[in-house]
């Protein structure tokens, strides 16, 4: 997965995760002598093609197992938020590491169930760094506060609590509406949730089996004050990419609407 620094003047960073739990932290570096016809190309190994001007420099390696309660974890997914690294595992635990410190508090987030689960995806709230969602192999989605080891709430991300055979594959939190997020399950069904309205049932559920959709993403959001359309990007098993415009009522809010939803969301998480 790719993590960009908030400060655009700094080099971007890439974090790569091995299934066995080894994390590689890379810096994207633009070489000053690249793009020039120089004799240095024959004597200096820049780790890139002779016509290139960008290369990756390995900065650090981190081991997930060093902070784990189990030595046989299989890592399934990863997300990075500032200096914090969150790694999902096959044991239903999200491991928490820091790219700048040897300790993280808490060092793990538990599923709080006896059921054997696997973490499928992790998605942070783009409006409040304290909260994130985790999708599991039994179709459940759990919300966590970064400061607490156990989940705040658990609900059926697929909309059907009686169908544990269907897992949550992707969660994408809307960059335009605070409580809104999209969920793709293993049956290629798309579920639209809005926590400012309900945490019991999704607003909509749509089958995408005809298109054999395997992953999804949302368009980036650069400026809250700019006029921007929202787009949903779907990837299919045949290698096609579909771009869909999201309806206006599910897109950008006015400042008054956003403030109202923020108050609802903060009240919602405060009572969990």
From TrEMBL:
<protein>
    <submittedName>
        <fullName>WD repeat-containing protein 60</fullName>
    </submittedName>
</protein>
<dbReference type="GO" id="GO:0005929">
    <property type="term" value="C:cilium"/>
</dbReference>
<dbReference type="InterPro" id="IPR036322">
    <property type="entry name" value="WD40_repeat_dom_sf"/>
</dbReference>
<dbReference type="GO" id="GO:0045504">
    <property type="term" value="F:dynein heavy chain binding"/>
</dbReference>
<dbReference type="InterPro" id="IPR042505">
    <property type="entry name" value="DYNC2I1"/>
</dbReference>
<dbReference type="GO" id="GO:0045503">
    <property type="term" value="F:dynein light chain binding"/>
</dbReference>
<dbReference type="GO" id="GO:0005868">
    <property type="term" value="C:cytoplasmic dynein complex"/>
</dbReference>
<dbReference type="GO" id="GO:0042073">
    <property type="term" value="P:intraciliary transport"/>
</dbReference>
<dbReference type="InterPro" id="IPR015943">
    <property type="entry name" value="WD40/YVTN_repeat-like_dom_sf"/>
</dbReference>
């Amino acid at each position: 997965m790719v993590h960009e620094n908030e400060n655009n003047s700094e080099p971007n960073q890439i974090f790569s995760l091995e299934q066995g739990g080894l994390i590689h932290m890379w810096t994207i570096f633009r070489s000053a002598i690249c793009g020039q016809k120089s004799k240095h190309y024959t004597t200096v190994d820049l780790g890139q093609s002779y016509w290139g001007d960008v290369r990756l420099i390995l900065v650090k390696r981190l081991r997930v197992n060093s902070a784990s309660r189990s030595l046989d974890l299989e890592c399934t997914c990863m997300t990075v938020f500032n200096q914090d690294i969150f790694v999902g595992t096959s044991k239903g635990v999200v491991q928490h590491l820091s790219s700048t410190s040897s300790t993280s508090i808490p060092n793990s987030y538990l599923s709080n169930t006896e059921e054997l689960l696997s973490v499928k995806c992790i998605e942070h709230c783009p409006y409040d760094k304290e909260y994130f969602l985790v999708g599991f192999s039994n179709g459940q989605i759990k919300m966590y506060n970064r400061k607490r080891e156990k989940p705040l709430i658990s609900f059926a991300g697929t909309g059907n609590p009686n169908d544990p055979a269907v897992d949550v594959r992707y969660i994408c939190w809307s960059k335009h509406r605070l409580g809104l997020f999209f969920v793709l399950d293993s049956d290629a069904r798309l579920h639209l949730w809005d926590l400012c309205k309900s945490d019991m049932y999704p607003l909509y559920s749509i089958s995408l089996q005809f298109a054999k959709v395997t992953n999804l993403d949302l368009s980036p959001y650069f400026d809250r004050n700019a006029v921007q359309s929202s787009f949903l990007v779907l990837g299919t098993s045949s290698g096609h990419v579909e771009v869909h415009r999201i309806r206006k009522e599910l897109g950008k809010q006015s400042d008054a609407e956003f403030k109202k939803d923020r108050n609802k969301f903060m009240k919602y998480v405060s009572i969990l």
